[in-house]
Specification:
By secondary structure, this protein is of the alpha/beta class. It folds into two domains: 152 residues, 3-Layer(aba) Sandwich (Alpha/beta knot), CATH 3.40.1280; 64 residues, tRNA(m1g37)methyltransferase, domain 2 (Trp Operon Repressor, Chain A, Orthogonal Bundle). Helix content is 33%, strand content 18%. It contains eight helices and nine strands. The strands form three sheets. A five-stranded parallel sheet has the order 2-1-6-5-7, sandwiched between helices. A two-stranded antiparallel sheet has the order 3-4. Helix 3 links the parallel strand 5 and strand 6. It is elongated. It binds S-adenosyl-L-homocysteine. S-adenosyl-L-homocysteine binds next to strand 5.
């Protein structure tokens, strides 16, 4: 069974977007994963096809209605659908490579994209939506966040990345940031490729890369080291 993504959005034209190209696009064509973009507005019930309303308690902006969104979710993900239901949200748990791996190993995902000030809290509770954030900043809508999440998941699906090995050595996979990369030419604007990398000594190369990983992680992301006590 291939990974099945259903995205609920007010802008279905944004999909597959960037995911229609390159690795993800080829995998989509090959049927390694599938994507349906569902227009939330199709589930509005009034003449004006209203999906949002003013916030209870007052204040700026608009809030997505619980009833319209619930109908869209029930259509995309009827009772018994094994896929997790995600809501892209800056209040969510920050997305990690570990969660990405779990999702890639599962049957797919139902992804709700918010707009305006967000969605009515009651639909989050009533439909068991897992709030997922892609970082501590505010997007204008959940669509770019959904594209980010799906990109990260799809590249892990079997057969998508030509060279499967490169997946295991990347940043975060071992709790460290990755070492720097170099390629030809040997000299660029007076800068040389570090000598050890052209030495042919694989043990030394591995040790250099590990040391660089640790140095960069200590410098830039001490929080990662703290979270992985086994990495010194
Ligand atoms: N008023 C909200 C922000 C709403 S932004 C607040 O202050 O928390 C509108 C929509 O964009 C959200 O409903 C969510 O779906 C999406 N979004 C914005 N930033 C995001 C982020 N960092 N991660 C995931 N989704 C985000």
């Amino acid at each position: 069974m291939s990974f099945s993504a259903s995205v609920l959005t007010l802008y279905p034209e944004m999909f597959p977007g960037a995911l229609g190209l390159s690795l993800a696009g080829r995998a989509l064509e090959a049927g390694t994963w599938s994507l349906e973009a569902i227009q939330i507005r199709d589930f509005a019930t009034d003449r004006h096809r209203t999906v949002d309303d003013t916030p209870a308690g007052g204040g700026a902006g608009m809030v997505m209605r619980a009833d319209v969104l619930a109908s869209a979710i029930d259509h995309a993900s009827p009772a018994g659908d094994p896929r997790p239901r995600l809501l892209m949200s800056p209040r969510g748990k920050p997305l990690t490579q570990a969660r990405v791996r779990e999702l890639a190993a599962g049957p797919g995902a139902v992804i709700v994209c918010g707009r305006f000030e967000g969605v009515d809290q009651r639909v989050i509770e009533a439909r068991g939506l897992e709030e997922v954030s892609v970082g501590d900043f505010i997007l204008s809508g959940g669509e770019p966040a959904a594209l980010v999440l799906l990109d990260a998941v799809v590249r892990l699906l079997p057969g998508v990345m030509g060279n499967a090995v490169s997946g295991d050595e990347e940043s975060f996979e071992n709790g460290l940031l990755e070492h720097p990369h170099y390629t030809r030419p040997q000299e660029f604007e007076g800068r040389q490729i570090p000598e050890v990398l052209t030495s042919g000594n694989h043990k030394k190369i591995a040790a250099w890369r590990r040391a660089e990983s640790e140095r960069l992680t200590k410098e830039r992301r001490p929080d990662l080291l703290a979270a992985h006590p086994l990495v010194k």
